[in-house]
Amino acid sequence: MEFDAKKSFGYPVLRDLLAGEDPELLDYPKKTFEPSVSFKVDANNPESLLLKYEISLNVTELREAVGNGASEFHVRVKCQKTFYCQTFRTSDFEGDIKLEGKQFRDLVEISVLLVAKKDFVLTPKSCHSDFRGVDFSIVRGNVLAWGAPTSYSVEREQFRSVRAIFDFNKNDEVPVGEFLLRTDEDYVGVDVHPSMYESVKIAENDPKRRLLILNSLYVPVLMQLLYILKSAPELADEYRWASVLVAKCNQLEIDIYEEHKLPSNAQKLLHMPLDIISRTAFRFPQ
Question: What tens digit of pLDDT does each residue of 208-264 get?
Fold first, then answer.
């Protein structure tokens, strides 16, 4: 069911107040249905996504319908690009829904509705005068409250390691031990000498060597990218690597404008590889 503010159900329905509307003319005057939803990457599993929801229901009779099991919330998650569409049912006013990041590309639409779970009689107490004094026979599946859908822009790379934004290339003109960055495409081009290219690829497949590459190559590269974003945040609207990096920073609550924290922020984006090395490789005297 698509949200339509002009749709009439024949009984009062709680919904959002749209721009320019008179709140006195709503089915429930001055009362609206505005669920809060947000995305967050699962810290324990970067491939997973947590959809966090919080629903405020300020109409007494509708809250009672949830409390006595007559109605429930439907949280619909829809992605047009992947054809993913699933509705989660709950009686909880807040909670988390775990999703697989690989199920989504580009825009994801979240809709929250209050739906009758069984047949019952609704006696509105705070509805518009057009409905006042009437008992309504609600049938299972009837919509009792609905909010305008919320859209989020997501990319699969946001649910993977930040290393996914890099595209490594061989370049004979780059001296051994150095790298050349190209940031004018969707993925960050990292040119390295052919001998170094092979070393990087080998290290990527070895957990211990990967830690060394993360600290010696990825950290300085990310520091440079964060500096570029600090100076030109509008790049997030043009290039995928920038939008993904900004999204990652938001998820980890990293302020890209804190220039003095570039080294530590680059480490955070890579899940603190230096800390892992210090705990697994270095040995300090007691």
Answer: 777 778 778 888 999 999 999 999 988 887 888 888 888 788 877 888 888 888 888
Rounded Cα gap, residues 15 and 1, in angstroms? 14
End-to-end CA, the chain: 65
The whole-angstrom distance between residue 159's C-alpha and the CA centroid of its chain comes to: 9
Look up residue 89 and give its two tokens.
Answer: 């049912």
Q: Do residues 80 and 116 make contact, with C-beta atoms less than 8 angstroms apart?
A: no
CATH of 14-158, one of 2.60.40.10, 2.102.10.10, 3.40.640.10, 3.40.50.10240: 2.60.40.10
Q: Do strands 48-54 and 36-41 pair parallel, antiparallel, or not at all (unpaired)?
A: antiparallel
CA–CA dist 46, 40 (Å, integer) = 10
Contacts of 80 (CB under 8 A, 6+ apart): 106, 107, 109
Looking at residue 96, its amino acid is: D
Supply the pTM of this predicted model.
0.57
Residue extents of the structural domains in the chain: 14-158, 161-280
Handedness of CA 147, 111, 242, 45 (dihedral sign): positive
Edge to edge, the sheet with strand 48-54 lists 36-41, 48-54, 94-100
96/247: higher pLDDT: 96
- AA letter at 31: K
**Cβ count near 88 (within 10 Å):** 16
- Report d(CA 19, CA 35) in Å as an integer: 17
Phi-psi label, residue 136: left if phi above 0, alpha if psi -120 to 50, beta otherwise? beta
CA–CA gap between residue 201 and residue 206 (Å, rounded): 9
Q: Which amino acid is at 22?
A: D
